[in-house]
Design goal:
Strand order of the largest sheet: 3-2-1-4-5-7-6
Distance between the termini: 39 Å
CATH class of the largest domain: Alpha Beta
CATH architecture of the largest domain: 3-Layer(aba) Sandwich
Radius of gyration: 21 Å
């Protein structure tokens, strides 16, 4: 079986399995309450129970919220009586946007202008620097830095189809030759050529990212994480960004 097919099957199994447990638990609890003769608002109770089960299973916040909303969405969808292909299309669209959230525990986080400006100030001054954004989303970070440092080379790696397509289109319209939008798995991307590696991921993959960086990054290079620390090694430096998120950049020097 091709690798992409294997990953796709694993992703579908993960989504269906977790959702089945959450919603199945909600249905079982509501059915038991009804059998006992209790009266209650069915949909809110199902949503709360499914969300609680999702929380206990360790789902990300977005997926916990999805479990709460799903009973309402199913009831509303049944009332609308839309063709099945509409729901399949919506599912495919959602999957194409939030691919990394379900597959690797990495939601679609987007860096803001204040963070981009702070990153620009952290880049080494020498000409010809190479920078990579792991999980580049819509490509904003690489495009901003490429505009402010025309002497450098900037790469954005993204594996979710729709965010990647948007980043590619933005680069094509902008026409900058010192930025590249790459579609692919960041874990398959070598970090050796780069002077600065930037990531805005989530707590879950940070230990693996550190091990990858330690094995591949050269002496004198920088690993910068937006918001998320590495449990195995304290950051060498931290930069507070003046924004509404109170963003903190964690910096490791190799």
């Amino acid at each position: 079986m091709p690798a992409w097919a294997s990953r796709g099957r694993a992703l579908v199994n993960w989504i269906v399995g977790k959702t089945f447990i959450c919603q199945g638990g909600a249905v079982a609890a509501v059915s038991l309450a009804a059998w006992l003769g209790l009266t209650f608002p069915v949909l809110p109770l199902m949503g709360v129970i499914a969300a609680l089960v999702g929380w206990r299973l360790g789902l990300a916040r977005g997926w916990i919220g999805t479990q709460f909303v799903l009973p309402f969405a199913v009831a509303g969808g049944m009332a609308l009586a839309l063709p099945a292909y509409v729901w399949l299309s919506l599912f495919a669209l959602t999957l194409a946007v939030f691919w990394n959230s379900s597959r690797g525990g990495v939601p679609l986080y987007l860096s803001n202008n204040s963070t981009w400006a702070a990153l620009a100030g952290l880049l080494p001054e020498q000409s010809g620097i190479k920078f990579i954004d792991l999980g580049g989303g819509l490509g904003g970070t690489a495009l901003y830095l490429a505009a402010h440092r025309p002497d450098g080379q900037f790469v954005s790696v993204e594996s979710a189809p729709i965010p990647y397509a948007i980043s590619w289109l933005r680069q094509a319209i902008g026409g900058r030759s010192n930025v590249a939008m790459t579609y692919g798995d960041m874990w398959q991307q070598s970090l050796t050529p780069f002077d600065v590696v930037y990531a805005f991921l989530s707590p879950r993959p940070m230990p693996d990212l550190y091990r990858k960086a330690r094995a591949e990054m050269r002496p004198g290079t920088l690993l910068i994480s937006n918001s998320f620390d590495i449990p195995e090694r304290a950051a060498d430096d931290r930069v507070d960004v003046d924004d509404s998120r109170q963003t903190q950049l964690h910096i490791w020097k190799f």
